[in-house]
Design brief:
By secondary structure, the protein is of the alpha/beta class. It is about 45% helix and about 20% strand. It contains 17 helices and 17 strands. The longest helix has 26 residues, at about 410-435. Keywords: 4Fe-4S, Chaperone, Heme, Iron, Iron-sulfur, Metal-binding, Mitochondrion, S-adenosyl-L-methionine, Transit peptide.
Length: about 450
């Protein structure tokens, strides 16, 4: 059940609260709108040295097969979720800008057949800023895309080579310029810090250069050394060095200051926007809304109402494209794993994702998921949480629960104490209610 449960005495009162929680869960599960992270296009021309995403180098031209299967899985999962309105679509990957614009148009047409695609829906496509990617932008717009996310990553050509990127800084800037011409105010750029040999000073200069040409949205990502990648092996073997942790921390602080000075508001750990250009799609994740994942390796969170479900599920699609294609052709979808989210697991996601936003979690939003135990009841009495509040890193007030400006940098170190307290408060009440209801422990 999605509703929270109070620890109380008396069977009658327990049943009343359980019934109220059940109705709350039903109301939430029938939410008429959803985000659709379409499509997970799994193919790339080559693998970047730092990347461990689910991506593959296509051995043959099977765009038509992939398009057909993405359309079919889209139909299946939309029918299963019974969502009536789609508020955003995100084409990620892989490299979705390798897909033909007709693929994008076909998928959006399928969405429109099985749900209402809002006139104001945000339709984003991730773009690799190569000449080929740039040349297709206008056709993508005609297909229905109205927002671009450009993977610039760096304006240093030597760094782009180390990262295994297949574009130059000049090509990236040209792509950003063309995207801004086509979708003014709706272009995001991705840029990476903590790269090999990078200094705080060089990063500050690079970011300033990027801000002179970028649009109204910037996503910052710290380079992460993922086990099994080429870059991980190079660093492990001493061929390449990356900045120390304290240096990358200063790079992040420097970026926040610089972006703020240029009129960008930070609305999430890694995301900054001006002129109200925050990503609607990503905000849906952080606010715990339902979303449907389509394509190899895609993830989703929704209630399968079409088969009588009342609980939200975490769903993962099959990773390997060839296997996923076979499964979609056989049964209409390639869902490999589905896990029913319990009350505690759902609240954990709401907490972890919500605190990534600078606005944090307001009381009304929390009560949608936990109508009987509010933020103050869950977190207001813990000694560990009180220490975070007194330090000024965490704020719990009439607005809700959120990190301070300085605390947002330390979110990862604060989450363990918050999650322990959440489990301490929620876990026992769930066990007691199961026992009262006659269910086994």
């Amino acid at each position: 059940c999605l509703g929270g449960l109070l620890t109380i005495r008396g069977t009658k009162k327990v049943l009343q609260i359980l019934e109220k929680s059940r109705k709350c869960a039903q109301n939430m599960s029938k939410s008429p709108s959803s985000s659709l992270p379409l499509l997970q296009w799994p193919y790339c021309l080559r693998r970047c040295s730092y990347c461990n995403f689910n991506k593959y180098i296509s051995r043959e031209d099977n765009d038509h097969i992939m398009t057909e299967c993405i359309q079919r899985e889209t139909e299946t999962l939309l029918r299963l979720s019974q969502v009536s309105c789609i508020t955003s679509v995100f084409f990620g990957g892989g490299t979705p800008s390798l897909a033909h614009p007709s693929t994008i148009a076909a998928v959006l047409q399928t969405v429109s057949r099985w749900a209402r695609l809002s006139d104001k829906a945000e339709v984003t496509l991730e773009v690799n800023p190569t000449p080929v990617g740039k040349s297709k932008l206008e056709d993508y717009c005609r297909a229905g895309v109205n927002r671009f996310s450009i993977g610039v990553q760096s304006l240093q050509d030597e760094d782009l080579k180390i990262l295994g990127r297949d574009h130059s800084s000049h090509q990236a800037l040209q792509t950003v310029e063309e995207a801004r011409r086509l979708c003014p105010g709706r272009v995001s750029v991705d840029v990476m810090f903590g790269r090999p040999k990078q200094s705080v000073e060089s990063w500050e200069n690079e970011l300033s250069e990027l801000l002179r040409v970028c649009d109204d949205h910037v996503s910052l990502y710290q380079l992460t050394l993922e086990r099994g990648t080429r870059l991980f092996k190079q660093v492990l073997g001493g061929e390449v060095t990356v900045p120390a942790e304290d240096v990358t921390a200063e790079m992040y602080r420097c970026a926040r200051r610089t972006l703020q000075q240029r009129g960008f508001l930070q609305y999430e750990v890694s995301n900054f926007a001006r002129h109200k250009a925050a990503s609607h799609h990503n905000t849906s994740y952080w606010k715990g809304r339902q979303y449907i994942g389509v394509g190899p390796g895609a993830h989703g969170r929704f209630v399968p109402l079409g088969e009588g479900g009342v609980h939200r599920e975490a769903r993962t699609q099959t990773l390997e494209p060839d296997v996923w294609i076979r499964e979609v052709r056989q049964r209409g979808h390639g869902t490999r794993r589905r896990i029913q989210l319990g009350h505690l697991e759902l609240l954990e996601e709401v907490l972890v994702m919500g605190l990534r936003m600078t606005d944090g979690i307001n009381h009304e939003h929390w009560e949608m998921f936990s109508p009987h135990l509010g933020l103050r009841e869950v977190f207001g009495t813990s000694r560990e949480v009180q220490e975070l509040l007194q330090s000024g890193q965490l704020i719990l007030d009439d607005r809700g629960l959120r990190c301070s400006w300085d605390g947002l940098v330390l979110l990862d170190s604060m989450l363990p104490a918050l999650l322990v307290e959440l489990e301490r408060q929620i876990g026992p009440s769930l066990q007691r209610d199961h026992h009262t209801d006659g269910s086994p422990h």
